[in-house]
Amino acid sequence: MSLPTRVQLVDVGPRDGLQNEKQPVPAAVKIGLVQRLQDAGLTEIEVTSFVSPKWVPQMADNAEVMAGITRQAGVRYSVLVPNMKGYEAAVLSKPDEIVVFGAASELFSQKNINCSIAESIERFAPVVAAARAAGIQVRGAISCAMACPYEGDVAPERVELVARLMKQIGVQRVDVADTIGAATPLKTRRAMEAALKHYDLHDVSGHFHDTYGQALANTYAALEMGVWNFQSSVAGLGGCPYAKGATGNVATEDVVYMLRGMGIETGIDLDKLVDAGQYISDFLQRKPNSRAATALLNKRV
Ligand code: HMG
Ligand code: MG
After folding, report:
1. What is the mean pLDDT of the chain?
2. C-alpha span between 187 and 241 (Å, rounded)
3. CA–centroid distance, residue 300 to ligand 2 (Å)
4. Ligand 1, residues 50, 51, 52, 101: which to mutate, most atoms within 8 A of Cβ?
5. In-domain check, residue 2
6. Is 146's pLDDT higher than 70?
7. Which domain covers residue 44, as residue numbers?
8. Is residue 1 part of a domain?
9. How far, in Å, from the CA of 177 to the mean position of ligand 1?
10. Which of 113, 134, 159, 276 could form a disulfide linkage to 194, CB 3.0–4.6 angstroms apart?
């Protein structure tokens, strides 16, 4: 067991979180959220996605949001891109990183991006090549790495396959994603090991939804393997419109609270992060979906 001394978090709240909201969220609120996240010390923020507005109307303001953020030196702003059309639109917004998103489950690939896993890799290849040639970083998300809402249990071999295919087309780092938040720690470990067959420890991150309340335990299981990159969502926002019933990502506040208690550095100011979570939760007219944020807010009163 070798726990890392430092963890790098990507807050995916503006994208994974807000893509799933029923009520429209104005671009100005999204921009305000990104600002508060960077003020809290987040150095990686997944801002939006350049997907079809017919599929995900909540992200139709992608270019407006990217144009509205005030970029801070040292912060990496990433966006999701499913195909060349998305890339061509995204590149005008000058992202630091694009994220191609595939799946370890065939049925989820079909439901989410309307193609097979093999077709998705064919689609991603020219996108990855164009981004790399333009000096834009490329990350790849492997959805349903442990479980699928349509196929059930997903074998680690499927994760290994997608990691291998992503590596072959030049994806620089991968997210092992528990899209529906159903995984438990040993299952998480096996999925991580599968990705690590093709990617260096520094290039594999955990993306855990918290539907069954397992995400912090899964994070700890990955930490024990030395994994030090994770994605989380402020206020526990999130879900995928094509994974019904899945709730948000593990709350960034909960992860930061745990890591701080373990003496693991994140560079994030927990109080300011709680403010960011409160800001978006106030807009959405609900309480932050984070136990740590709730406890800290209760203490403030
Ligand atoms: P399709 O219908 O097969 O695409 O969708 P198409 O190429 O046949 O095009 C159909 C129409 O969409 C055309 O317009 C295209 O121009 C347009 P029309 O002629 O009908 O007016 N179109 C686009 N418009 C804007 N931007 C684009 C784009 N591409 C085509 N990029 C497609 C295929 C991939 C586009 C669609 O399935 C899609 O947009 N899917 C995205 C679904 C999504 O965003 N899911 C959530 C993100 S993934 C996630 O949350 C998981 C993650 O968090 C990790 C985890 O937790 O697992 C990352
Ligand atoms: Mg997700």
Report:
1. 97
2. 24
3. 31
4. 52
5. no
6. yes
7. 8-300
8. no
9. 19
10. 159
